[in-house]
Each structure stands twice: as structure tokens, then as C-alpha cells.
Amino acid sequence: MAGMANQAFGYTGNGRKRQGSDDIGGDGDMIVAKKGMGQGAAACWDDPAAALAAARHEFGEHGGVNMSIEASATFTVMEPETMRRMFAGELGPDRDFFIYSRHFNPTVLNLGRQMACLEGTEAAYCTASGMSAISSVLMQICSSGGHVVASQALYGGTHALLTHFLPRACNITTSFVDIRDHVAVREAIVEGRTKALYFEAMSNPTLTVADVPELSRIAHEKGVTVVVDNTFAPMVLSPARLGADVVVHSISKFISGGADIIAGAVCGPASLVNSMMDLHQGTLMLLGPTMNAKVAFELSERIPHLGLRMKEHCSRALTFATRLKKMGLKVIYPGLEDHPDHALLKSMANKNYGYGGLMCVDMETEERANRFMNLLQNYSQFGFMAVSLGYYETLMSCSGSSTSSEMSHEEQVLAGISPGLVRLSVGYIGTLEQRWSQLEKAISRMVQEGGMLLKN
């Protein structure tokens, strides 16, 4: 029965309903071969936008330029013997045979092909949330007694998963290190026990940039799988092309762009993704973090303009960060030349996408951070106080008391999270100068109140 999963990610589909017998042969395989431009094809493209453009375009059932939504939970067969053969692994999605949408769904698989192209991996599987993608990967790679080496600077939910849930529920422990300290990373790996090195390509919220090629080299020397969360930097960075084994995403953020969808993705080797869909041992199959087909359709329509959106997010973030720094504010943005990881990011980044759509302003205390955000939202209408990121409006939060609140004070200090760190996900709606005037207005008001002292 496990063989069913092993057929999954050669799936290309033929965009047509099956006629007559379920036992398609000869011609069906030829159609797949001719039209199969999905998974794996992206590896030859340096630019993720080029890889996406090279992927097969899925048309609608009646010739529509957009694919049809396959909303069925279960699928019929034409002959009784077919169901046995599907469960035996003889027939699968690679030949347009589907059983049940918790296993595989044509619309969700199409989004998976797009994600594989975006990240330059052999395969991808889309999930109901980013956290389900992260937890499924780590529980598949690590068995009971396993060990993870992870960055100190992580999203609070991921930190809680590694610190509290996995040790209690799965007997999987984690050693947290400064991901910039490669000696510490190497020393934390326990040969034979450490199964995964986990970090964020650009850390939440401190915007530390990981040296993906060097960290991958260190991990691979010791037989450790490298898992990278690229939620903060889609299009900007391509961790798999830099040496990482697995890339995970919260698609809810930049890839969605609308702050209206919760979704995730696992991008990596076909062997790993297939193992995660194994009927007996697969975390994706058995834990069931299933993406709804209607959600997959919505997302597949947004990915084609992700590159354009990312360029504008990044361009505005760089402009605002540069101007705020000149005003004397303490700004953290890897696009600034004085950021400690600027040269590293420049050496790894895909050309012409910029340096990321997030920036931080350190107000030093939570009180000043809250006053600053209040003025930005309620006085100058610059943005919204809300968690998450990647929205067309600017979103801002004080990380220490919100998205990183799962971490203790000591853990936040180790991660470099100041109590007054304001994380801004820079939007692109309105004109740049319109938004800058709103930002400047809030700063001027805070200076007048005596709540901010500009250094220049």
C-alpha cells in the first residue's frame, strides 16, 4: 500500500477526463511525457520567475485559461479492480488516478508544482498552514530520541514547537545556537543523533541572514538534513539552490499577499515528500494537514505576480529604512550597507528582487514601541497594528510582546529581540511619497511629545 505514495510526484495530469477503461497505457504515458513541465524542471533556472514561467500552465476543463477547481473529497473509478490497484500503488496521480483528497487532489498538486518551481526543488506538497508544514517535516525526519540543531532566532511558534511540544510528545530535543556562529553549529551537531539543522533564511523578527551554503556544507558533512524556513524572503532567496535540502513556507504571508488565507508548503526532494505521504509512516498522510482545493486555486492565481509584488515590497522597505536611518532612528534592515549581513545577503540573493520586505525600528522600550505604532496607525494612517506580514498594507507589531511572546525574556535576549523592537512589513499600496509623509508625520509628533530623540 505504501507504493501509492511513490507514484505521486511524477504527476503531470492530462487535463482531460478519463474515457472508458481506467487502465490507461501507452498513449497516456506519452501525453504525460510531452506535457510534464512541472516538478524538477525549475532546477535549471537561476531566476524563480523564469522557473515559474517554464512550468506547465494548467487549463480549465472546458478550455478556460484558468484551471478548474477539483473540489471533490473522493473520486470514482470505472472498474472495481482499479481501486485495488490504486491502493497497491500500481495506479496513482502520475497517471491521473485519485482516491481521496486528503491523499492527493489535482488542484492542490498543481499548486505544489508551482511551489517546487519557485524554490527549485524536485517536489512540493501544500498544507493547511505553515506550522503544519514545519511540524510535519521535523517529525518525518526525526524519530523518537532524535535531535535538532536550530537557530536561536526563530518565529515564536516554531520555537515553542521545538522547545515544548516535540520533547514532550515525540522525545525530540533541540539545541539552539547562534546561527551566525558556524563553530557553535558544528559543535552542537551530535553525529548519529542529530537529524536536522533548522533555521530561517531571514530570521523573524531580527532579520539575521543565514549563510545557507556554508551551513548546508557543515550539516551535510555530518549527514544532517538542512531545513530552511523561507517565509520572509520568497523570490529574494532560493535556499534549495544554495544547498538546503528542504524549504518550508507559510504561504499565508507574501505568497498569498492578501492576509486572507492560511496555508503552508514543504518543498524538497521527491524521496522525502513521498515518504511524508506513505500510508503507514507519513506525517502528511497520517496527521492530515490537508489544504482545501479552493484555497489552492486562489493561491495558484497569485503566484504569477509574486515577483512583481516582492520587488515593490523590497524597494519601499529599502527607501524607508534608508531615510529613517538618516533621521537618526535605530533601523535594522539587511539592505542597508551597515547591516552585518548585508554583503552575505547580496552574495546569495536572486538578482533584481531587493533585500526583503521587512524592516525593524528599535524603540528600545515596549512603551515607546507601543506609542510609535499607535501614532502610525491612529494618527497618521501609515499602517495597521497586526501580526503577520506580506500584506499590501503595512503591518506592524512589537515582536517581544506578540509573535515572539512564546519565548522567555532570556530566550529573547539570546535571539537579539529588544523589548522595543517594532517589526514592519512594508506594504505597497498608495504612492511611496504619500506613505513616507505619513511615516514622517508620526515621527514628528512623537518627537514633539518628547517620546523620541533623533540622533541627527
TrEMBL record:
Residue numbers spanned by region Disordered: 1-27
InterPro entries: Cys/Met-Metab_PyrdxlP-dep_enz, PyrdxlP-dep_Trfase, PyrdxlP-dep_Trfase_major, PyrdxlP-dep_Trfase_small
GO biological process: methionine metabolic process; transsulfuration
Cofactor(s) the protein needs: pyridoxal 5'-phosphate
Residue(s) carrying N6-(pyridoxal phosphate)lysine: 253
Domain of life: Eukaryota
GO molecular function, one term: pyridoxal phosphate binding
GO annotations of cellular component type: cytoplasm
Keyword tRNA-binding: no
Record keywords: Pyridoxal phosphate
Keyword Metal-binding: no
Protein family: Belongs to the trans-sulfuration enzymes family.
Protein name as it appears in the record: Methionine gamma-lyase
